[in-house]
Write a structure and sequence with these properties.
The complex is a heterodimer of chains A (about 160) and B (about 600).
Chain A: H1 2-10, H2 16-25, H3 32-43, H4 48-58, H5 62-71, E1 83-88, H6 91-95, H7 98-109, E2 122-127, E3 139-141, E4 144-146, H8 154-163
Parallel strand pairs in A: 1-2
Antiparallel strand pairs in A: 1-3, 3-4
Helix pairs in contact in A: 2-3
Chain B: E1 5-10, H1 13-33, E2 40-45, E3 57-60, E4 64-66, H2 74-83, H3 129-134, H4 139-147, H5 150-160, H6 172-181, E5 188-193, H7 202-209, H8 211-225, E6 229-234, H9 239-254, E7 270-275, H10 285-292, E8 316-320, H11 321-333, H12 335-339, E9 349-356, E10 362-367, H13 372-379, E11 389-394, E12 401-402, H14 413-418, E13 427-432, H15 437-451, H16 457-474, H17 480-496, H18 500-505, H19 507-515, H20 517-526, E14 540-542, H21 552-556, E15 562-563, E16 571-572, H22 582-586, E17 592-594
The chains are: A alpha+beta (about 160), B alpha/beta (about 600).
Chain lengths: ~160, ~600
């Protein structure tokens, strides 16, 4: 029984705001990507049930929606951690040790890239260039940019976020 | 009411993320606390370019340029500089300077730069249309709408010699004339702001610092080709640029500079944003259009070119952000003026994001024809930590590696192509002796393989094969046969791929094989990586004469493969060593050898 309740609680539904957004865009050509952006903004990823709803509302085949989601790196199919860490792997950051930052981060969190920590708090992804190359190596935590990061700083940054 | 002094705070992403927002608030607060709100205005501007030394604060009219300013410095700047008129020397680039009116003249970074595209970046508040207008903004649009016919506009742009700044360098005037020649009807003007080249942020800074210049240019282009709708296709990864564009579009509509009957003329034009979603291939025109249409961003064969059959099958012009930012200036000052800047075939200036192993990372704009040496050593201040220059990469994953012997080649489209690279969109990445060439080639191939859309075989399979060979070489298992195969595949990809991504993906491999063959040889023959980057080729050993047995290395080793008694030399079990290098880093006695 308990599994049934957790499953029911986990089902994601489009909010009225999102439905209104879709209605507003429904007749604009090329709306799908803009709608998916908005959905991901709301949920942090694109839940399967919601993709079904979007398919209905926009009247596009689900296959097309998944075709688009899986083509673009930006769209996520899995729920990310409550705190999202992005380590830049653009060229400038790569040259200045972006890979070491990722390794250290994996060590600290105990999970690899694109995996959520068991407590649901963190997930780390490698991203292509966030456009702050002057500050390389760069990482972004919950939208905040950390520049000239050293592996030794990471413990402190994570601890600070845990507390917040 | 006029302000007596202005405090400009850089609001580019790099400075903002470096406590720049707190600094801006602190300065505002300090101005308020000292009762100066009517005399001193604090302005948050776009990128000033000198990201390395950010956050940057500039004070007008004295033109004082402060670097690495912290929020806690705000009170001092207001008390000393603004009130007492005394320069805060410790915040100057040259700390020994004591005069107040020392602007950027004293800073090598700004010498040799010439700003057309970035003319307003770091000068105006990008969220205020009035400040753009005060700097001759929308004046070119007014001139175009009331004094010029569409053909005159195209002629002026053609006369300027402006070429596309997105990478390929197609003449802008010619592109516009192709679309203008199509029968009247629905046409589109698209701005490509999907800056996907890793290590480049020119377009981001332009849009964040001066969004109206791009909107004005798009409207002018719309008038020239007969389009009434424009789209800015911008990376979703650039939230600040998106926000500033949205504000700018709203203001332009309010001022009658976008929308129906612009400035009372009979020309109507509107602009909407479309977000990219992280696909490098969408920098390719036809893929970009597919993405705006809401589809997977896959390129289609050309012809038909977008100027004939583009967005939803209608004639469409696609111009890059930097190309567009040139347009208002060209129309105000004339194509002839513009054509006098630069070299015989490449006119105007080029913005570069100068990054990598360089002292002054940042955003720069130089006349075409400037040499790499001037950029790297004069503007960029040379290589970090006194290391030796190894290579510079223009054009990102589509470009080639430029070796030291070409440092004096003037930068323009043709000379870069001649030495196996491309102009690209403006990423300029500097590598030093600590960087391994096959490893970098592998990094770029890893990127293009990941970003290949998979539609055509040369790119999909060829890229993967190249990556596999590079991987093999970096692991010390490569052979000369692999090199020959790589050359052949590279050629096939360049000739047979469907779009620019595949056609140029082998450039890093081809150029590095041409100029840095000795490094490949070392990896193959000697199983050695001189830069120490290829981990599989490294060997860690402990020098028993230097080791004092402090046990620091044994404690830090994650696989406990270092053994030895306290105060006696330790030994690394090379079979179990995972080459993480932590023992090397932690040893205080230089007893760990890496070879």
């Amino acid at each position: 029984m308990s599994t049934a309740t957790t499953q029911a609680a986990a089902i994601q539904k489009l909010t009225p705001e999102l439905k209104a957004f879709i209605a507003e865009w429904k007749n604009k050509p090329g709306n799908l990507i803009m709608v998916l952006h908005r959905v991901q903004q709301g949920f942090g990823y694109i839940p399967r049930e919601v993709a079904f709803e979007v398919a209905d509302l926009l009247d596009v085949p689900l296959a097309k929606i998944y075709g688009v989601i899986t083509f673009y790196n930006f769209f996520k199919l899995k729920k990310p951690g409550r705190n999202q860490i992005q380590v830049c792997m653009g060229t400038a950051c790569y040259l200045k040790g972006g890979e070491d930052i990722i390794q250290e981060m994996e060590g600290i969190l105990g999970v690899g890239l694109n995996t959520v920590t068991p407590d649901g708090e963190f997930s780390t992804e490698a991203v292509r260039c966030v456009g702050c190359c002057g500050l390389a190596p760069v990482m972004v935590v919950n939208g905040e940019v950390y520049g000239k990061v050293k592996t030794a700083d990471l413990q402190g940054i994570i601890a600070k976020i845990r507390k917040a | 009411m006029g302000y007596k002094q202005y405090i400009l705070v850089c609001g580019g992403t790099a400075c903002e993320s470096n406590q720049g927002i707190a600094l801006f608030s602190a300065l505002k607060k300090a101005v308020e606390e000292n009762g100066l709100v009517n005399d001193v205005q604090v302005v948050r501007t776009g990128c000033l370019g000198f990201c390395e030394k950010g956050p940057i604060v500039k004070i007008l009219p004295q033109d004082t340029f402060y670097v690495e300013v912290k929020p806690e410095d705000a009170a001092v700047i207001v008390k000393e500089h603004i009130i007492k008129g005394r320069v805060v020397s410790r915040l100057l680039y040259d700390k020994n300077q004591s005069k107040i009116n020392v602007g950027i003249e004293g800073i090598d970074f700004y010498q040799k730069q010439f700003r057309i595209v970035l003319r307003n970046c770091g000068v105006i508040d990008p969220d205020k249309i009035d400040e753009y207008i005060a700097r001759d903004g929308y004046k070119a649009l007014e001139k175009v709408l009331f004094e010029m016919k569409p053909q005159d506009v195209i002629d002026e742009v053609s006369k300027s010699g402006l070429r596309g700044r997105g990478g390929a360098g197609f003449p802008t005037g010619k592109k516009w004339s192709f679309a203008a020649m199509q029968p009247a009807g629905q046409k589109y003007m698209v701005c490509n702001a999907d800056e996907g080249d890793p290590g480049a942020y020119m377009d981001r800074s332009t849009l964040e610092g001066d969004p109206h210049s791009v909107l004005e240019a798009m409207t002018i282009a719309g008038y020239a080709i007969g389009a009434n709708m424009g789209y800015v296709y911008i990376r979703a990864e650039y939230p600040l640029a998106i926000q500033r564009l949205e504000t700018a579009i709203g203001q332009a509509r309010e001022y009658g500079l976008l929308g129906k009957n612009i400035l009372g003329s009979d020309f109507s034009f509107d602009i909407e944003l479309r977000l990219g979603a992280g696909a490098f291939v969408c920098g390719e025109e036809t893929a970009l259009l597919a993405s705006i249409e809401g589809k997977r961003g896959m390129p289609t064969p050309r012809p038909p070119f977008p100027a004939v059959k583009g967005l939803w099958g209608r004639p469409t012009v696609i111009n890059n952000v930097e190309t567009l930012a040139n347009i208002p200036v060209i129309l105000l000052k004339g194509g002839l003026w513009f054509s006098k800047i630069g070299t015989a075939t490449s006119k105007g200036t080029k913005v570069f994001a100068l990054t990598g192993k360089i002292n002054n990372s940042g955003l720069i704009e130089v006349p075409m024809g400037t040499t790499l040496r001037e950029i790297i050593f004069d503007i960029g201040g040379g290589i970090r930590n006194g290391k030796a220059f190894k290579s510079a990469q223009t054009g990102g994953p589509s470009g080639g590696m430029i070796p030291p012997q070409f440092l004096d080649v003037p930068i323009d489209y043709e000379s870069l192509a001649k030495i196996g690279s491309i102009m690209g969109s403006g990423g300029l990445i500097v590598m030093d002796e600590d960087d391994c060439i096959p490893d970098i080639a592998k990094f770029y191939l890893d990127f293009t393989v990941d970003e290949s859309c998979g539609k055509c075989a040369p790119c999909r399979i060829g890229g993967r094969k190249l990556l596999n060979y590079l991987d093999k070489i970096c692991k010390g298992a490569g052979s000369y046969e692999d090199i020959e195969n790589m050359k052949e595949i590279s050629e096939a990809m360049a000739r047979a791929s469907l779009c620019g991504l595949g056609q140029t993906a082998s450039n890093p491999v081809q150029s590095s094989l041409r100029y840095f063959m000795d490094e490949y040889k070392e990896h193959i023959d000697d199983k050695k990586c001189r830069a120490g980057k290829c981990k599989s080729l490294l060997r860690y050993t402990i020098n028993p004469e230097k080791c004092v047995g402090c046990t620091a290395c044994a404690r830090v080793c994650p696989v406990t493969c270092i053994s030895g008694e306290r105060k006696k030399p330790h030994v690394i079990d090379e079979l179990r060593c995972i080459k993480c290098g932590q023992c090397f880093e932690v040893c205080k006695f230089n007893a760990v050898n890496r070879a």
